[in-house]
Amino acid sequence: MSISFQVQDRLFTLHTRTTTYQMQIGPLGYLCHLYYGRRAEGSLSHLYRPEEFGFSPNPYPLRLQKVTSLDTMPQEYTGCNTGDFRVNCLTVSGAEGAYGAEFRYVSHAILPGKYAVEGMPSAFAGADEAETLVITLADEVTGLELELYYGVFEARDVITRAARLRNAGENALTLERAASLCLDFPFGDWDLLHFQGRHNMERQVVRAPITGGIQTASSRRGASSHQHNPFVILAEQDATEDRGDCCGLMLVYSGSHRTDVERDQTGSTRVVMGIQDSQFRWTLAPGEHFQTPEVLLTFSHEGLGQLSRNYHRFIRGNLCRSPWVNRRRPVLINNWEATYFDFDTDKIISIARQASALGVELLVLDDGWFGSRYDENRGLGDWFVNEEKLPGGLDRLISEVNGLGMQFGLWVEPEMVNEDSDLYRAHPDWALTLPGRAPTMGRNQLVLDMGREDVVEYLYQRLSALLEGHNISYIKWDMNRSLTDVYSRALPPERQGEAAHRYVLGVYALLERLTARFPEVLLEGCAGGGGRFDAGMLAYCPQIWCSDDTDAVERLSIQYGTSFGYPVSAMGAHVSACPNHQTGRTVSLDTRAVVAMHGTFGYELDLNLLTEAEKAAVRRQIERFHRYADLIGQGDYYRLTDPARTSDCYAWQTVSPDKAEALVSVVIPHVRATTPLIRVQLRGAGGGRPVPGFRVRRVQRRERLRCPVRPGGGQGVHRRGADVQRLRPPPAVRRLPQRSDSLGKGAVTWIP
Ligand code: DGJ
User: Fold this and answer.
1) Using CA atoms, how far apart are residues 583 and 603, in angstroms rounded to an integer?
2) What pairs with residue 161 in β-bridges?
3) pLDDT for 725 beyond 90
4) Is residue 63 packed enough to be buried (19+ CB in 10 Å), middle (13-18) or exposed (0-12)?
5) Out of 93, 280, 367, 450, which could bridge 506 as a Cys pair, Cβ 3.0 to 4.6 Å?
6) Share above pLDDT 70 across residues of the chain, in percent, rounded to a whole number
7) How far is ligand 1, taken at its centre, from the CA of residue 205, in Å?
């Protein structure tokens, strides 16, 4: 039993393999949070002791006792306007317009299996893999009922949380904020790690101490966004990859979101995470309920690396429902950076022919195959083939591609429409626009109102017809602008504050129906690169295009940041042409491949333009990927370097589940005149200490493991019991003349 309730102390204890989460029904029935951290036994109720703080008000029944205040009490979920001045979970008002709620314990149930989240993706459990705790609380005055859900995945070291608010009263209520959770850390000095960025530079790690005040990571863009990922980590200030306590909070949601972190007057740190409350207003009629998205929690006392691996395993094993999630993905060629909009059947087939000759397995036809899509200003919404570009239609092209022994994949952007399209001309009211205002444009396109059932139904029928009618094995689902002008013509004025969340529910409804009907289609998410790289989309898409920036050097930090929460098997990554189209930089083909293998691996360039030597290299790269695909996709991932300490070298390692084999990848991104020796500590088990499985007896030929530092990347395989001679040093190393006079310069060496 991973969940227990101790009647006498009114104590809930949730145990996973290495962690404990504890809460207690406190004074007046408030649900107090006591602890989330390294596994501990027995009652931890001593961790919360009410103390008097001036200007922290007391609940009326305790007005003489004076020490208990909601303002200093760690709580599992807060109400509003009743004395807790910290960041709160809920803002609700009732019939008289009065804001106010405070929740008291009513009942609880411990259930086998994992609860489901209505209308939104959530984690799932295999037989006997999880238990659920549901605690029901209520606000007596409004009649608002709160169900707190806890899913405990003991072996995975993950606890999921979600909340459900039901109006059990007689009057309509208005929600202006409804977060998924509150998590109080009553003691400890923490750093906050969050993942911010921009288009072409997503998920850059930002780490800073949590000081007094409130820090917010949020998106108001209608999507989880390039700018702020819905994922944060609290880490002990001296926590490293291998050591120290850290706690991750990951929102399973793809729309606007908000995470507030506040260190309060008592030194306690509170995190509140959930959907965005800006412009949010949800009417809850009597009997209606509101479901919040789920949050995935994991705690590691063995540093950030273990925290990431917990998430990687969980996303692969308990979140993504695609049968593809643990399968080897086909090596693909995508025509976008090879042709942009300028292609026809012959051009695509010539790319496919060359790709197939080199061992590529899937051709993806990107933007431009439909309607009047000759450039980015028109055609979106008209998901019918453009026969002028592709005479004979998709079938002719697909049969030629299949004839080359390759599968066929197609790009779509279902949530969008151009004004210059048949769809918009027929249904202008389907787009999000504000009454009386010219719409704000993004990429000269508009956003469809996915909160409308007729829009979702139309897209379901159209996309189903495409998938039924043609032999399509893969879909790239793009989304190329943020939401503005959020106003739904299907909602009455008082419900306009629901439009942004209903949009996300509509996207999920469509994905739900399509993935149920076409489970074998490999779905790759995308939003102008990685603008919607989140756990919500990963429930449907086993892979998401990581960034529109395909420069291998820039990708190092993008993929590094992404790896804190999301598995390598989810990161869409391609080898593209040089000079790179985004940066103009030239990087060796080998290095580009090493970086793209830190992901799903594919190509995005016209392979016909390569030299014969480069084509031979591509063939070898694909062979290499096949050799290591399972290791890369299923292995345990270790970050070996930290760009905050040195940007001279990026190294990472994937270890097979049986720990018999590891792939080490190293990239030197910058040229420097003089660089000291860079030492890379291999990891694999036991937190950075020498790993028993990775005995490398003695460095017998040191020069083979050293190279003057120069830009380039390479990979080496490390097998149990192997000595260094069986390690394959990076190609950059092997190409160098192994002269001792080169050894005095900066060098990379692996420390087993
Ligand atoms: C943005 C994507 O990220 C690109 O890969 C490409 O598919 C374009 N959209 C096409 O418009």
Assistant:
1) 18
2) 150, 295
3) no
4) exposed
5) 450
6) 91
7) 24
- Pocket-forming residues, ligand 1, beta carbon under 6 Å: 336, 366-367, 411, 478, 480, 526, 528-529, 545, 548
Which one has a higher pLDDT value, 704 or 24? 24
Burial class, 538, CB count within 10 angstroms (exposed 0-12 / middle 13-18 / buried 19+):
buried
- Residue pLDDT, tens place only, 165-180: 999 999 999 999 999 9
Give the pairing of strands 362-365 and 332-334.
parallel
Tokens 């990963």 appear where? 538
Q: What beta strand segments (E) does 154-304 contain?
A: 158-167, 173-185, 190-198, 201-209, 213-219, 228-236, 246-252, 257-263, 269-275, 282-284, 289-291, 294-300
Q: For a pocket test of ligand 1, which of 334, 367, 378, 416 has the largest count of ligand atoms closer than 8 A to its C-beta?
A: 367
**Which DSSP symbol is given to 497?**
G
Using the predicted structure, report yes or no on whether residue 702 has a pLDDT greater than 90: no
The amino acid at 333: I
Pairing of the two strands 332-334 and 678-681? unpaired
**Mean pLDDT, to the nearest integer, of 459-465?**
98
pLDDT at site 681: 82
Closest to 177 in 3D by CA, of 67, 256, 115: 256
* pTM to 2 decimal places: 0.93
Query: What separation in angstroms does the CA of 256 have from each of 88, 118, 218, 273, 390?
Result: 18, 18, 7, 11, 38
Distance CA(670)–CA(554), nearest Å, equals 11
CA 147 to mean position of chain CA atoms = 26
Token pair 């200490």: residue = 689
Indicate the average pLDDT of the chain.
92
Atom of ligand 1 nearest to the CA of 376: 11
489 CA to middle of ligand 1, Å? 29
Extract the tokens encoding 301: 């006392």
Whole-number Å distance between alpha carbons of 263 and 556: 33
Which atom of ligand 1 is nearest the CA belonging to 527? 3
Report the catalytic residues: 534, 614
Q: How far is the CA of 219 from the centre of ligand 1 (A)?
A: 21
Cis peptide before 61 (omega within 30 of 0): no
CA separation for the pair 417, 380 (Å, rounded): 5
Task: State whether residue 131 is helix, strand or coil.
Answer: strand
Q: Which amino acid is at 379?
A: G
Query: 514 C-alpha vs ligand 1 centroid, how far in Å?
Result: 21
- Atom number, ligand 1, closest to the C-alpha of residue 547: 3
At 251, give phi and psi (nearest 5°): -85, 130
